[in-house]
């Protein structure tokens, strides 16, 4: 009987700490996404129109990319709809082709319409193989346009990699509990 009580106590304790741990991790990603937005706007004020006018967007504050012939990328981000945080997103990419090096970037994806945002939330969204991001530099966002309902921007943080593609990225959306 005593063993069952100890086992029950351990399970409850682990459950509480795992929920708390996830909350702390999520909050860290949220904080990094807020910082990333500031960095993006500082690099190119023209992005403000995308933040203001899009149906929604997802900011991946720390996407790690690396490879030599075979490459991979991954990151976690925050999804916003009408300027409000609605959930988390995971980004994964695996590809083969010319690439070399490693890089950390901020990636932001803007959704032009509610339909494209909903496709993202429902897991029906991916980039075509040839898709690429616009490198964030002062003035470039003013001339950028949506393509197939999305606009993608990347701001290098560290490293050097000969690859600017976003094609083949896969995403998972996890809504915040209400």
How are the elements arranged and paired?
Layout: H1 2-43, H2 47-53, E1 56-81, E2 84-111, H3 114-121, E3 134-135, H4 140-143, E4 150-161, E5 170-175
Parallel strand pairs: 3-4
Antiparallel strand pairs: 1-2, 2-4, 2-5
Task: Describe the overall structure.
This protein has one domain. Helix content is 34%, strand content 42%. It contains four helices and five strands.
Summarize the structure.
This protein has about 180 residues and is of the alpha+beta class.
Top keywords for this entry?
178 residues, five-stranded mixed sheet, 4 helices, 34% helix, globular
Give a quick account of the main beta sheet: strands, pairing sense, barrel closure.
Answer: 5 strands, mixed
Count of structural domains = 1
Distance between the termini: 38 Å
How much is the average pLDDT? 79
Shape: globular
Would you report the number of β strands? 5
Estimated share of beta-strand residues: 35-45%
Q: Write down the Rg.
A: 19 Å
N-to-C SSE string, H for helix and E for strand: HHEEHEHEE
Number of helices: 4
Structural class: alpha+beta
Spans with pLDDT under 50 lasting ≥5 residues?
A: 3-21
The proportion of residues forming helix, as a percent range, comes to: 25-40%
């Amino acid at each position: 009987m005593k063993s069952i009580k100890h086992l029950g106590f351990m399970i409850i304790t682990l459950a509480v700490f795992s929920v708390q741990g996830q909350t702390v991790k999520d909050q860290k990603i949220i904080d990094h996404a807020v910082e990333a937005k500031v960095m993006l706007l500082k690099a190119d004020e023209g992005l403000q129109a995308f933040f203001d006018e899009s149906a929604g967007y997802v900011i991946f504050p720390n996407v790690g990319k690396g490879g030599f012939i075979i490459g991979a990328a991954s990151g976690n981000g925050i999804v916003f709809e009408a300027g409000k945080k609605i959930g988390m997103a995971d980004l994964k990419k695996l590809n083969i082709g010319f690439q070399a090096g490693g890089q950390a970037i901020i990636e932001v994806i803007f959704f032009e319409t509610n339909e494209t945002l909903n496709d993202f939330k429902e897991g029906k969204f991916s980039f075509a193989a040839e898709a690429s991001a616009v490198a964030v530099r002062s003035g470039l966002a003013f001339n950028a346009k949506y393509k197939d309902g999305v606009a993608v921007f990347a701001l290098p943080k560290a490293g050097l990699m000969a690859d600017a593609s976003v094609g083949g990225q896969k995403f998972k959306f996890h809504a915040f509990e209400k």
